[in-house]
Design brief:
This protein has five helices and no strands. 53% of the residues lie in helices and 0% in strands. α2 packs across α5 and α4 crosses α5.
Length: 107
């Protein structure tokens, strides 16, 4: 009985771990990814490190950020005060979703 319970527990844990790692091919939850990686410094689209650089459309344009590609480039190679998010930290798919969320959400 103990062996079958241990085997079932091990199987369940392994299945859960694999499902967590599996790429479903679906679109990432952009809002959740933003909250996870960005909202600490950019709550509500603001900027607690540099108040002159919030995520509003006007501020982004003023700082040369015009497209989702520009946002991803800034995530990958930021200036002083911003955490660098390489492809190991945030996949290209997640980064694009976050960037599109920023452009859509903070007018």
């Amino acid at each position: 009985m103990k062996k079958s319970l241990a085997a079932a527990t091990l199987f369940a844990v392994g299945a859960f771990a694999l499902s967590a790692l599996a790429d479903t091919g679906g679109k990432p939850d952009a809002k959740a990814e933003f909250e996870k990686h960005c909202a600490v410094c950019h709550p509500g689209g603001g900027n607690i490190v540099n108040k002159a650089k919030p995520l509003t459309k006007g501020a982004l344009m003023t700082n040369g950020i015009k497209s989702w590609k520009d946002i991803v480039a800034k995530m990958r190679n930021p200036g002083p005060g911003m955490t660098k998010f390489d492809k190991n930290a945030i996949s290209d798919k997640e980064a694009k979703a976050i960037a599109e969320y920023v452009l859509k959400s903070f007018k």
